[in-house]
Amino acid sequence: MAGRVAFLIGNQTFRPSSDLPPLEGPANDVAALARLLRDPERGQFEVHEFLDKTHYEVLPEVEQSLGRAAEGDFFLIYYSGHGKLAKNGELCLATADTFSDALRATSIPSRHLRDLVEESNSTQVLLLLDCCYSGAVGDGLRGDIGSELQVVQNARGFYIITATTRMQTAREIAPVPGGVVMGRFTASLVNGIESGAADHGRKGKILLSDLRRYLGDASIGSTPQFFDRKASGDPLISHSPATVAPLLDAGVLADLDAEQWYRRQGAVSALSSVFRDGDAKTRAAAKTALQRRLEQERDYSVRAALVSALGFEPVSTPAAQHPPNVPTGTSAPADSELAAAATDIVVPQVTPEQRAPERPNPAMSSEGPAPKGRPLTMAELDELVKDYPDPTILGNLRKPSSQRRRRR
Questions:
Q1: In sequence order, which residues have a C-beta less than 8 Å from that of residue 147 and are 6 or more positions away?
Q2: Do 89 and 203 reside in the same domain of the chain?
Q3: Which of 2, 4, 164, 216 could form a disulfide with 72 if both were Cys (CB 3.0 to 4.6 A apart)?
Q4: pLDDT, tens digit, 9 for 90 and up, residues 167-224
Q5: Can you give the pTM of this predicted structure?
Q6: Which DSSP state fits 16?
Q7: Which residues contact 189 (CB under 8 A, 6 or more apart)?
C-alpha cells in the first residue's frame, strides 16, 4: 500500500530579534488538523507534528522522508505561521530560530521545499499554507505570501493551496466552539473534512479537487489560491464517514421486515441482486441481511426466495426418501458414492436352522393336498382367515352358501 505522510508545522512564538509578532492560532491549527489526518477512518496519514521548532529540526525529517519515498506515496506539508519574503523575493516560512537579517539561513525557504519535492520519487505532494509575513498591517492579520509561489509550483507533482491571493491578508482570529482561536483558512479546512461538507457529491471521500472547490466557496474573508502546473491526478485527502452512503438501501431493509409477504419478497429480490453483483462489502452486508431474514421467515414463497438468493440447493424430495444418515436440506450422495458404499455392505448368511418355521397350510393334509371339491371345515377356515383385515368378509364366509351376499 502506498504511504501517506503528513508534516504539520506550526510556529507562533519567535525570537524577539526576528521582528515577527507572536500568533495565537498555529498550535490549535496543528492539533486540530493532526487529529483528523491521523484518524484511521479519515486521513489515515502518518503524522509528524512540529510546533515552535527550529528549521534544523524540521528540514532533515522532511528531506529524509521525501528521499525514501516511492512512486505513489502521498505527502502533505502544512504550515501555519508567518511567511516572510527574502530580499530576492523568495518566500520563507518562519521557524522558532528565524532571524530577520538571516532569513534564508534560519527559516524554511519555499524553493528548498521545491527542490526536495523535485528530487523525490513521490509524484504527489500537497503544500497547504496558512501564513502571513511581517508586512501585514493591524492586529490579528496574516499577510500576503507573494508571487514566489509561481516559481515554487514548477516542481513535478507539487500541488499548492494558499490561504490568500497576492493582494489579501489572511485573518487569524476565528474562534471555534470552546473559544479556541484558529486561522480562518485552517478552521474551514478542518470543518470541511470533519463534517463532510468538503465531500462534493457525498461519495464518502474527499479528493483534492473537492477540497479546492470547498475552500474556494467557503467564506473565510480571503480567496484561496491553487497551483498545480506540473501535477496530475486527484489524490485522496480524507475519507468522509459523515457522508459515506449506507451499504444497503434503508427502504429495502424496512421492506425485509414488513408484515406483508409480498414486500418481504420484493426486498429479497433486491438484496439478491446486490449479493450477486455488488462489491465485497455490500455483498457481505446483503448476505447477513438475507441470512437473518431466513432464520425468522415462515412464509413458504419468501423462504424459497431466500434459499434461492443465498445459493442453497432446493430440496425436492420428502425427508423420508433421503438416504440414511443424510440430514434434511442437504444434498444426497451421488450414485457413484452410493455404489462405492454398497461394496462395503456384508449380507449375513442364514442357516436352515435359523429360518422361521413355515406356517402349515390348513388345506394340506399330511398325505398331500385335500381332495378337490372337499369344502374346508370351519376350523380350517378360521386358521386360513384369522389374519384377514376385513371382519365383514370373514363374517360373510361363515354364513351358509345360501345366505352369502353375492357381488354384482
A1: 89, 166
A2: yes
A3: 2
A4: 445 555 555 666 788 888 899 999 999 999 999 988 899 999 999 999 988 766 667 7
A5: 0.62
A6: G
A7: 33, 128, 130, 211, 215
Condensed to tens digits (0 to 9), the pLDDT of residues 103-156 reads: 899 999 988 998 898 899 998 999 998 886 433 223 344 444 444 555 555 556
Number of residues in the chain: 408
Does residue 257 share a domain with residue 111? no
Are residues 210 and 285 located together in one domain of the fold?
no
Residue 26 is classified by DSSP as H
**Cell output for 213:** 472547490
How many domains, the chain? 2
Q: Which of 182, 213, 239 is the last residue of a domain?
A: 239
Q: Show the CA angle centred on residue 122, arms to residues 113 and 163, nearest 5°.
A: 45
% of residues, the chain, pLDDT over 70: 65
Which H/E stretch holds residue 80? strand 74-85
Separation CA 3–CA 44 (nearest Å): 9
Residue 153, phi then psi, degrees to nearest 5: -65, -10
Q: Does residue 263 sit in the same domain as residue 120?
A: no
Q: Are residues 74 and 221 in the same domain?
A: yes
Q: What is the pLDDT of residues 249-277, one digit of tens each?
A: 889 999 999 999 999 999 999 999 999 88
Q: Where are any strands of DSSP class E within 228-367?
A: 236-239, 364-365
Q: What range defines the domain where residue 140 resides?
A: 4-239
